[in-house]
Design goal:
alpha/beta; two-stranded parallel sheet; 17 helices
């Protein structure tokens, strides 16, 4: 058995080859839901769901005995039965009885397709030994599938293909701009593709179309805020901040995203001073899917001294402490921070 890639899973399902159990995890919510539902659909036809599809949500029912009984139930007038489990605490079951857990997965009936969909849980096998062992059991006896967020190039390919199927074209640099604007949440990105296609009604998608109809992510808006500050455009920075608060963004989220931009600057500046370019940091700090942040930081870092960047990070830290004070006004704190950051770089 194996740890399946998305491509391998998709191929197996297209060929109607089903495993007895699947553990689906990762940080890309849309893909996890899509494939969990697709496996269930492949296992049980729509007209037989009432007999052969049993759904569990740990929020409402996490009875392990009921779950085990469900996976041991024979199908009625069908080849397979499917037990569909959302956010079941498999790590707890594994910890309580490792042998029983392994035997359960190993001896799953051939007529059963069990889908363990970890929707909201953040599972990092490198940091959590229990989940690492759970994953290894699925990998050994059936299949585990890690569905993480796509890198920018893959998102661009998805956007381009989605628009093409809807009668629109988009240039590669414009598709990158769309991804930068909306963010890397695939569900939100596909919604914006639908909106763009409906708005354009064919033809070539331009940046102006994206600006006209697409909703910017918090990260994209804060990137514009950071860019305005670093470009020494105080009035534009304040206007963007007004928009952020008008959109009811939480001040701590604004501060967090803004701090991320300056941390990028610090890392890149340190790398440049050490004789390396920003690319050196891609794997070290997990920028694999967000390499554009390093490119932007490299451009801006050349205009600032390390002292300026450190002073800006100190101001961000001070603002964080002020936001955590119950008596503080978040909007005033962020506005004051913008002025202070501006004063550091002029």
């Amino acid at each position: 058995m194996s740890e399946l890639t998305e491509y391998e899973l998709k191929k197996e399902l297209s060929e109607n080859r089903l495993r007895t159990s699947y553990l689906i995890y990762g940080n890309e919510a849309y893909l996890k839901q899509h494939y969990a539902n697709l496996i269930a659909k492949k296992a049980v036809s729509a007209n037989m769901e009432g007999f052969n599809l049993r759904k569990f949500d740990a929020e409402n029912n996490n009875d392990i005995n009921e779950l085990i009984e469900s996976t041991d139930t024979l199908p009625i007038f069908s080849e397979h039965s499917c037990t569909f489990m959302k956010n079941f605490p498999l790590d707890s079951f594994y910890s309580a009885d490792k042998e029983a857990f392994e035997n359960w997965i190993k001896d799953m009936p051939e007529t059963t397709v069990a889908v363990f969909w970890q929707d909201t849980d953040e599972i990092n096998p490198r940091k959590n030994a229990k989940w690492k062992n759970v994953i290894s059991v699925f990998t050994k006896y059936s299949a585990s599938v890690c569905l993480d967020k796509m890198d920018q190039s893959s998102l661009v390919k998805t956007v381009t293909g989605g628009l093409k199927r809807r009668g629109c074209e988009i240039q590669r640099d414009t598709a990158f701009y769309l991804v930068d604007t909306v963010g890397d949440d695939l569900n939100l990105l596909l919604n914006e593709v639908e909106k763009l296609a409906a708005y354009k009604k064919g033809g070539v998608i331009e940046r102006a179309d994206i600006d006209a109809v697409c909703i910017k992510s918090l990260e994209s808006n804060v990137f514009d805020l950071s860019k305005a500050i670093l470009s020494r455009n105080l009035s534009k920075a304040l206007l963007i901040n007004e928009k952020l608060f008008g959109d009811r963004e939480r001040p701590e989220m604004i501060l967090g995203a803004l701090a991320g931009s300056f941390i990028d600057l610090y890392r890149v500046k340190a790398s440049l001073e050490g004789g390396r370019d920003a690319e050196y940091l891609k794997d070290m700090y997990g920028y694999k899917n967000t390499a554009f942040r390093l490119r932007n930081a490299q451009r801006d870092a050349r205009r600032l001294t390390m002292v300026q960047i450190k002073n800006c990070i100190a101001l961000l830290s001070k603002a964080d402490g002020e936001l955590k004070s119950l008596a503080s006004d978040g909007k005033i704190i962020i506005e004051k921070l913008i002025y202070e950051l501006y004063e550091q770089i002029i």
